[in-house]
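User: Hey, my collaborator sent me this sequence without any context and asked if I could get a structure. I don't really work with proteins. Can you help?
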Amino acid sequence: MSAARPLTTLRTIAVIAALPLLLTACGYGSESTDDGKQTKVAADGKKLSTDEVRIGYFPNLTHATALVGVQEGLFQKELGGTTIKASTFNAGPSEIEALNSGSIDIGWIGPSPAINGYTKSNGKSLRIISGSASGGVKLVGDPKKITSLKDVKGKKIATPQLGNTQDVAFLNWIADQGWKVDAESGKGDVSVLRMDNKVTPDAFKSGSIDGAWVPEPTASKLVAEGGRVLLDESDLWPGKKFVITNIIVSQKFLKEHPDVVEAVLRGSVKTNAWINANPDKAKASANAALKELSGKALPADVLDPAWKSITFLDDPLAATLDSEADHAVKAGLLEKPDLKGIYDLAPLNKVLKADGRNEVEDAGLGAE
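Assistant: No problem. I've predicted the 3D structure and written it out in structure-token form, which is a compact way to encode the shape of the chain:
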């Protein structure tokens, strides 16, 4: 493959380097949580090329492929005698750190952290090997303060963190309105406040923010607190699809254990098929997993609308990842990156072909 060139500017390096500190300040933390989820294997399960595969994901509905696949044993069924050890994360940078350090092998993650992780390592740390979810992001506002999209100007709007996928999308949307905001400080025609999704509903309820551009289920939590959906990000994309969650793998693990990677991908494909064929059962399964991880299930008035806004799919929607990188460049958070080689979809396409399904494209960004 052709290695990515080190195009990141000093300013970008400063932004990326500051992310873990920002996350800690906002309550995200930079550490993972070992959720204790080590699945049981069948007595006659055939072990693959390693005893254990360590996977990481967020306790979010946009990561429901991982939540449901682990909860229902669909991954373990494909892995046979190789066990799964699962860890959960609250932010992309900490998951990338875990992948780079070897603490996890495979992870579910948003596009911006995947892009940052790939470019920061000069194309040596990870590969995107599958898609997982599309959609599930909304701009929600206080109807007493914001009655139309033009009213967003001059208001205080929250995003999850500086430079994360939703933050970049909102900054891009602001620019498209002809408004100006300094990306790093968040100051300008709109006040962009970066805060943990966990505290955003309380901030909204107290009136300290006027709205938020956030993923599910946070968006639906704001609606339950009296907010109104001003914009569904899906409406801004061709075909109403854009990548919100990818599956990434350490290049080292992919090279050393291709059989395990393929087994996880089979599990992912079968999980997504099961989710789409059994939406109510899958929704309940995801909520049970969230309750196990957080101690509290989502109420129906949050869970139901949130679930409906997310599409679970295997296609990584590679062209939209390239566009999201362009948005980060436009916002001034990233110099144009070389993403050639960020994808290796050969294992996924092998699985899809064996299942009689169409192969997916890498938009010219595949490994050679």
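In plain terms: The first strand starts at residue 33 and ends at 38. You can pass these tokens on to your collaborator as they are.
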